[in-house]
Design a protein that fits this description.
- The chain is 58% helix and 0% strand.
- It contains nine helices and no strands.
- By secondary structure, the protein is an all-alpha fold.
- The radius of gyration is 19 Å and the shape is globular.
- It has one domain (4-274).
- The longest helix has 25 residues, at 229-253.
- Helix 1 crosses helix 7 (175-194), helix 4 (103-120) packs antiparallel against helix 7 (175-194) and helix 5 (125-140) crosses helix 6.
- It starts with a helix and ends with a helix.
- This is Metal-dependent hydrolase.
- GO terms for molecular function: hydrolase activity.
- Keywords: Hydrolase, Membrane, Transmembrane, Transmembrane helix.
Length: 277
Amino acid sequence: MATGPTHAMSGLAAWAAVTALADTHAIGQLSPKTWVVGATLSAGAALLPDIDHPSSTVAATFGAISKGFSAGISGFSGFLYRLTRTKRDSDREGTHRGFTHTVVFAVLAGLITTAIVQTSEGSALGVLMFFFAGLAVRGLMHTWSSRQDALLIAVTSLLLTVACWAWAGDQPTDAAAFGLAVMIGCVAHFIGDAITEQGCPMLWPVPLGGKTWYPVAPPKKLRMRTGGAVELAIIGPGLTLAAAALTCVVLYRLGVAPWLAGLDLPPGLMAWIEASP
């Protein structure tokens, strides 16, 4: 489950699921504006871990700048892998599916996002939105590779950011929610990679089976090939439907999608949708 579109939709689906199931918790009572910004961050963050691969489409999102950053992250990831691996860990470079594919990285990314929003009092949020929107758009349009395509992706990301900003009006500055959105997007990426053949070392540096870079994964029979028929025909479309449905539920609860009340839905389902989180 490692293609761009699937990752992007997994981030949105995960954010929608967490906020829909949060009940009385604060994360389930966000304003519509904050929720939409969080959805943008989470969808983009679901692509962020692949920044450790200089040849990935994500690394090429912002041209030479993102490629240079990717090369640096890849080198650091390889160094950290060699430094902390045990004799039981596989003999690989560790530059991809290394540090950026760990919960430690997800927490760090979320904390940095929170700190940026807090210290800038919201003024940097537009930059963050552009960055994560760019990752999400790049993931969805992963087959676009020319310079013209890169420019189109940048323009699309900018338009999305401006449109969301114009709709939001006053800058939403719920820093903790935005940091959590980035964490959720990253973890969604890890789970997606974990069900592929290679697995994901998301629990580093916790030693499991004598390995600090233990590849978390289900039994081999339940794993799937990246970009294979199962992902393209089942996982990807399923996540897209789940993301759309959960987004409608959340927006209805937030007063943005009142038209859901007019649908002929089962009473039990409608009662859950109408439940005030």
